[in-house]
Write a structure and sequence with these properties.
The protein is an alpha/beta fold and 285 residues long. The protein contains twelve helices and eight strands. The chain has helices at 10-22, 35-44, 68-81, 96-101, 148-160, 170-198, 202-208, 211-217, 224-233, 235-257, 261-271, 274-278; strands at residues 2-6, 27-31, 49-50, 61-64, 87-90, 111-116, 137-141, 164-168. Strands 3-2-1-4-5-6-7-8 form an eight-stranded mixed β-sheet, sandwiched between helices. α1 (10-22) links the parallel β1 and β2. The N and C termini lie far apart (51 Å).
Length: 285
Amino acid sequence: MKVAIVGIGLIGGSFAKDVKKLYPESKIYGIDTNMQHLDKALRLGLIDVKSDYKGLYDADIVMLAIPVDVLVQELAVILDAVGDDTVVFDAGSTKALICRAVEQHPKRRNFLACHPIAGTEFSGPEAAIADLYSGKTNIICEVEKTAFKLQEKALKIFQEMGMRIRYMNADAHDKHIAYVSHLSHISSFMLGKTVIEKEKNERDIFDMAGSGFESTVRLAKSSPAMWTPIFEQNKVNVIETLTEYIQNLEDFKKMMLEDNFVAVYDEMENTNRIKQILNGIPLTK
């Protein structure tokens, strides 16, 4: 099996690791504008060959693990380069604009719009880890626009990697992911900013930071080059979530100003129900 991966970082590199484990006979072709990433991926054994778009025609699978702004520009060019039996799928955190970019493309049938919800705060080929996708949800949008035999080819690999598959339309995906992913990253970045600005003596931050702060601010270590285009493409939904989030913060602040700690307690107790949601337990009225 010939697999081409465009973008050899955490997401693409981790996919390469799992493909190698599942299909030892496969040959992985790496494509990246960062030559240092390609060289490093080759040394790490993530890829077998450094390649370019000319090598896509006879690929069985093409995975696109590049920033969403680049993806919108490059997807049509990549579809132009692939053969009829090649399935192309992405890992972008937005879906609506990406799907619209190729809705009239003659090879739209070759594209499967995906968002595997997996990752860490690290980036680059050295961040790649095995089994990153195991147990993770992969949201697939506009599946009906992809040729059935090509859907099957991709789904087989996703399932063998242990992913859960969820189908959703692109607009719904972008709205929901703004709450559960994009807002989390903004909150983490701004918490980090607040602490850095307040604690001019960085030693105090490191000495006093506990596991709660570390886990909450973890996402602030994520790549701005990846996340800025995500926020731009999903601007309307992100602003909506920010408005609601800021209002909740203002309400919490107001309770404290009024010494209404009964309300503070109730607010936190009600929010404790998030534990049930994250454990897959339906909320009862």
